[in-house]
Specification:
heterodimer, A: alpha/beta, Rossmann fold, six-stranded mixed sheet, four-stranded antiparallel sheet, 9 helices, 10 strands, B: 9 helices, 79% helix, binds adenosine-5'-diphosphate, binds magnesium ion, ABC_transporter-like_CS (chain A)
Chain lengths: 246, 256
């Protein structure tokens, strides 16, 4: 297997508050990794460190064999290889659906308008939003916004897709439509790193599950292992709590 | 009677009033545009995230300090005094007399820029942080993020304040008469100096000022409404066709 991203001794502090401690982990090409853990355990911060929306306080992020935390590394160049889907969608309010999926391609990847439109339409079809290309974000429901956000990220044809609780801000009846698309994507061999509270979904799509607790990776392994027979007591505790409330 | 006087004043002096009003508009508009550009630039620079270290960090600090001095200085001194300082100062420093109209535009532009810088900064801060992050996440740099995502939203946010600034400028250009700019107030003074009917002459000026500001208010309101955009959109293709009241009526009619 080919490692795409490898994280070594990563740490992150906000002031004196140490949010991530000595994180080691890697993502292989084509792998679907889900990160679970209670709220405040540092899942979002880890994901945001991976694409440098947060600057790590220490450690290394090795991408294709290079440490991208090196000063001379171009972080914009690196970020375009990673797609990010946010909990709050963050569609560009000033662009319609089609342009949301085109502007990055044209301005960052320097694709021609025609090519960008063709690619944008292709991925909008994948998420079932090709009929809404003229709509502005404010016209869409939460589920529709998140589907467009996924298409926007896919349109950049990234090496890895990062998802930060993509269904947590959705009304319950819209969670399914987004998870369905993510399952389909997982089936295409796309490399995905997903923070989620949807345990059923995590069990179903993951090649590997990472359980985080208080800023460290407490345990990781295949979903059968983590969900049925975890090594750690705190993993068991978390699952018991979470599965009960669902 | 005053009204007769006013009519007579307009009849015999309308070209002067018109020229004055014209210059007032030109100076206010150009000044507002220049000021908005200064404000946008200053606002963008002042919101650049600080680099960690190195020359860039110190350079940015220096530029920010200069911008802060500029903003505070021009907001903290009367425009009428600024006009005198710039007009006579340039004569002293470069030994040449600026065209008063150019000097007027410069004064209004720089002054407006100081106010707009703050307005733009507020407008940038009020754009949701998620917009910025999403643009960064697809690989845009700071300038691209600003041009393609943040600024269009900022401009929409600050449009009312900019229009307001334009209206303020129409009124405030009156102070430029101290450096002999032939705007409306200056022309009115000339007219009144000839006929000694101060009240009537300035009342005419008053009405002209009001017509200008009110017309602009109406125009701006129209544009703001237009910028809001349509409240609906078309769903393309018929597999996901959203039924409108019209469609349902049609169907009902067919059924009958
Ligand atoms: N920008 C920030 N400034 C200060 N503290 C933060 C910031 N972002 C996150 N934190 C803190 O870091 C911890 C982990 O947060 P987060 O990564 O969002 O957790 P999770 O996504 O697992 O719920 C929390 O205690 C949170 O308060
Ligand atoms: Mg989170």
């Amino acid at each position: 297997m080919e490692t795409i991203i490898e994280i070594q001794r990563l740490s992150k502090s906000f002031g004196s508050h140490e949010v991530l401690k000595d994180i080691h982990f890697s993502v292989e090409k084509g792998e679907v990794v889900t990160i679970i853990g209670s709220s405040g355990s540092g899942k979002s911060t880890l994901l945001r460190c991976v694409n440098l929306l947060e600057k790590p306080s220490g450690g290394q992020i090795i991408y294709n064999g290079e440490n991208i935390l090196d000063d001379r590394h171009d972080i914009h160049q690196y970020r375009r290889k990673l797609g990010m889907v946010f909990q709050q969608f963050n569609l560009f309010n000033n662009h319609d659906v089609l342009n949301n999926c085109m502007v990055g391609q044209i301005k960052v990847l320097k694709r021609s308008k025609e090519e960008a439109e063709q690619i944008a339409r292709k991925y909008l079809r994948v998420v079932g939003m090709e009929n809404y290309i003229n709509a502005k974000p404010r016209h869409l429901s939460g589920g529709q916004k998140q589907r467009v956000a996924i298409a926007r990220a896919l349109s950049m044809e990234p090496d890895v897709m990062l998802f930060d609780e993509p269904t947590s801000a959705l009304d319950p009846e819209m969670v399914g439509e987004v998870l369905k698309i993510m399952k389909e994507l997982a089936g295409t061999g796309l490399t995905m790193l997903i923070v989620t509270h949807e345990m059923e979904f995590a069990r179903e799509v993951s090649d590997r599950v990472v359980f985080m607790d208080k800023g460290v990776i407490a345990e990781e392994g295949p979903p059968e292992k983590i969900f049925n027979n975890p090594d750690q007591e705190r993993t068991r505790e978390f699952l018991k709590r979470t599965l009960k409330t669902v | 009677m005053s009204l007769d006087w006013m009519i007579q004043i307009i009849q015999s002096n309308w070209p002067m009033f018109l020229r004055g009003a014209g210059w007032t508009l030109v100076i206010a508009l150009t000044g507002t545009i220049i000021g908005s550009l200064i404000g946008l630039l200053a606002g963008v620079v002042r919101t650049i995230p600080a680099p960690e270290k190195g020359i860039k960090k110190n350079l940015l600090k220096l530029i920010n300090a200069i911008l802060t001095i500029y903003i505070e200085f021009f907001r903290g001194t009367p425009m009428i005094v600024q006009a005198m300082v710039i007009f006579y100062g340039s004569a002293l420093a470069f030994n040449f007399h600026m065209n008063p109209i150019i000097a007027g535009i410069v004064v209004v532009g720089i002054n407006t820029g100081a106010y707009m810088a703050e307005i733009v900064r507020g407008g940038i801060i009020s754009v949701d942080k998620g917009q910025y992050e999403a643009a960064q996440a697809i690989g845009m740099n700071h300038v691209q993020t600003m041009i393609h995502v943040v600024m269009p939203q900022v401009i929409r946010n600050i449009l009312p304040a900019t229009g307001n600034q334009f209206i303020i400028n129409i009124k405030d250009t009156a102070v430029l008469s101290v450096i002999s700019v032939t705007e409306l107030f200056f022309q009115t003074k000339t007219v009144a100096g000839n006929n000694f009917r101060y009240f009537e002459s300035f009342f005419v000026a008053c009405i002209i000022y009001f017509i200008m500001t009110f017309a602009i208010t109406l125009i701006l309101r129209y544009f703001e409404r237009k910028l809001e955009g349509p409240d609906n959109y078309t769903v393309i293709g018929n597999n996901l066709h959203v039924e409108t009241a019209e469609d349902m009526k049609k169907k009902a009619n067919k059924g009958m």
